[in-house]
Write a structure and sequence with these properties.
156 residues, mainly alpha, three-stranded antiparallel sheet, 6 helices, globular
């Protein structure tokens, strides 16, 4: 049998445990349930953690850019940023170049919370990748990127 048939929902040979999106969703669901408990213990939720991690790479960033990187729609991201601003974790200011753009930056409290989040989540990541060889990890990243790129022409 063709190895792709069992993962094709249009084929009678389809098996859910061979469907990449089922497997990805199962993995993300398990990861999120584990990470959510660790983050809540330090006063964060997953969306707030995503914002802090993204800003930890580069700060400030535009709200739209953060929303895209976090895979969260802009209106939801706007509410998350407002909540995080009120909590003193980030600052939000209009861009000098384009007043339509809101620049979001880590506040000192956000930097401290990011450090806590890194400590809380690093052991989970280490456990997740335990036993993988560097080449396997690189292959995994490349394959996920290829699958994402394959969907690009079909995106609305």
């Amino acid at each position: 049998m063709d190895v792709f048939q069992s993962g094709n929902p249009g084929d009678t040979a389809f098996r859910v445990d061979r469907y990449p999106f089922y497997l990805l969703n199962r993995l993300v669901s398990r990861y999120n349930s584990i990470i959510d408990a660790r983050l809540r213990a330090i006063g964060l939720d997953i969306p707030g953690w995503r914002v802090l991690m993204i800003l930890g790479e580069e700060s400030p960033r535009g709200a739209r850019e953060i929303a895209q990187a976090a895979v969260i729609n802009l209106s939801t991201m706007t509410r998350i940023i407002q909540r995080m601003t009120a909590a003193g974790l980030v600052t939000a200011t209009p861009s000098r170049e384009d007043a339509r753009v809101t620049l979001v930056a880590l506040a000192p409290a956000g930097e401290a919370r990011l450090a806590e989040a890194r400590l809380a989540t690093a052991p989970i990541y280490a456990h997740l990748i335990a036993g993988l060889k560097a080449e396997e990890f690189e292959q995994l990243i490349a394959l996920l990127g290829r699958l994402h790129d394959n969907l690009e022409p079909l995106a609305p």
